Amino acid sequence: MSSPLQITLDAGLSAVHPGDQVTGRVRATYVTKVRRVWLRLALVERTADIVHVAQVAEEVALATGPLTEVAELPFSVLLPAGAFPGGETPPHGRVGWELRAWADVPGRDPEAVAPLRVAMR
């Protein structure tokens, strides 16, 4: 079963640079009882057991209120100028910048995560 949320970056954004606008869209197919759809750009440490958000660059509401149909929700968030390349994958986890979209719904919130490849200029 596929996720009711998908994050797609705009064409040409295979890698982003510190200070860049990160643009794309969130496709929301979960349309019943949605209170809000959020997007967060953050530096995150992930292991098999934990997720630690070390720094939130931006968190924005992409939609409020019930969705009546499948929605393509555009976004534009700023990667901080001091963002380091990240994407490190130690033996038991990952440290890097990522986009996380989630829908605020009754019960467990559906989500999608898209790691970013940050490169220096």
How do you describe this structure in short?
The protein is mainly β and 121 residues long.
Structure description:
This protein is mainly beta. The chain has no helices and seven strands. A four-stranded antiparallel β-sheet has the order 4-3-6-7, with no helix packed on it. A three-stranded antiparallel β-sheet has the order 1-2-5, with no helix packed on it. It is globular, with a radius of gyration of 15 Å.
CATH architecture, by name, is Sandwich
Oligomeric state of this protein: single chain
Number of domains: 1
Query: How many angstroms does the end-to-end distance come to?
Result: 39 Å
Uncertain segments? none
Order of strands, main sheet, comes to 4-3-6-7
Biggest β-sheet description = 4 strands, antiparallel
Taken from the alpha-carbon principal axes, the silhouette is globular
- The tally of helices reads 0
Rg computed from alpha carbons, rounded to a whole number of angstroms: 15 Å
CATH class: Mainly Beta
> Considering DSSP H and I runs of 4 or more, what fraction of the residues is helical?
under 10%
Q: Which fold does the CATH topology refer to? A: Immunoglobulin-like
Q: Helix- and strand-based class?
A: mainly beta
Protein name: Arrestin-like N-terminal domain-containing protein
Structural key phrases:
4-stranded antiparallel sheet, 7 strands, 121 residues, Immunoglobulin-like
Task: Lay out the secondary structure.
Layout: E1 5-9, E2 21-28, E3 36-47, E4 51-64, E5 71-78, E6 93-104, E7 111-115
Antiparallel strand pairs: 1-2, 2-5, 3-4, 3-6, 6-7
Protein name: Arrestin-like N-terminal domain-containing protein
Organism: uncultured Solirubrobacteraceae bacterium
